[in-house]
Design a protein that fits this description.
Layout (H helix, E strand, L loop, with lengths): L13 H9 L7 E9 L7 H18 L5 E4 L2 E4 L4 E9 L4 E9 L6 H16 L4 H12 L5 H14 L17 E5 L20 E5 L3 E3 L2 E11 L5 H16 L6
Parallel strand pairs: 4-6, 6-7
Antiparallel strand pairs: 1-9, 2-3, 4-5, 7-9, 8-9
Helix pairs in contact: 2-3, 2-6
Length: about 250
């Protein structure tokens, strides 16, 4: 007998055998965690809240650089840009699409400047003035489904393995950054386990649900999906404590 001691198991259920046939060894490093963050002290309107929350997350990422890394050629590299991606719905006459904007170095920007940048980028996206995002959307809309996987792998290899700027062909470079923050308040949803977009090389996806009150205090439901390869739960817990600190002491984020 080898180092691992065991005995055989008889009468394995059909469901367990079906599971063996359906799945290989686990390969997904994603971890999902739910929080309920007190935000009473922030005391801002819904319109002001979203840019402010992006600034807070940006400050947390600046304080904890392990959240802001990228894997290139199977090695961890420290990103120099503090970039956060925010998915954004685009509506037209026939249907709607999902794209997004990104904010760089939000932690260093004044409130008014950050709000203006937020509004301008969303307006450009929804009115078709963001040329690079429009070009990427049109390319994928016109591409036959059979070639999507191959083309996406090729772009990922060129950009994230060889580190070649895809802006050379008119596409946005590293648009997803290290963290994606998606807001769910309009859907009246508290928690959603949003996956990390495989093409993005991001380490964290954070979904922000609709706020609620308990005993006169405001709480924000958060669901975090993070790539366990980038950091451990201990590092994540430290980052969460920093997030709590900023929410309880808003004077620190001005």
């Amino acid at each position: 007998m080898g180092k691992i001691k065991y005995t055989s198991i008889k009468n394995i259920s059909s469901m367990r055998k079906l599971a063996l046939g359906a799945w290989a060894n686990p390969t997904d490093p994603s971890v999902n965690v739910e929080f309920e963050l007190e935000v009473t002290e922030l005391n801002v309107s819904q319109k002001e809240f979203k840019p402010l929350f992006i600034k807070i997350i940006s400050k947390v990422m600046n304080d904890h650089p392990e959240l802001n890394r990228i894997l290139i050629r199977r090695k961890f590299r420290q990103r120099l840009d503090n970039r956060i991606f925010i998915p954004t719905v685009i509506r037209n006459k026939h249907n709607f699409d999902l794209s997004g904007i990104y904010i760089d170095n939000a932690y260093s920007k004044k409130k008014d400047a950050l709000e203006n940048e937020w509004n301008q980028k969303i307006s450009e996206l929804r009115t078709g003035k963001n040329k690079k995002i429009n070009r990427a959307r049109k390319i994928y809309q016109l591409m036959p489904s059979i070639g999507l996987r191959l083309i996406t792998k090729l772009i990922s290899f060129l950009h994230y393995t060889l580190n070649i700027p895809i802006s050379l062909i008119g596409l946005p470079d590293d648009p997803f950054g290290a963290i994606t923050v998606t807001f769910l308040d309009k859907f009246n949803i508290k928690h959603a386990h949003v996956p990390i977009y495989a093409f993005s090389r991001s380490s964290v996806t954070l979904s922000v649900g609709k706020s609620f009150k308990i005993s006169g205090k405001d709480f924000l439901p958060l669901t975090c999906t993070f790539d366990h390869r980038y950091f451990d739960g201990m590092e994540g817990a430290k980052a969460y404590k920093t997030l709590e600190m900023y929410c309880k002491n808003p004077s620190l984020i001005q």
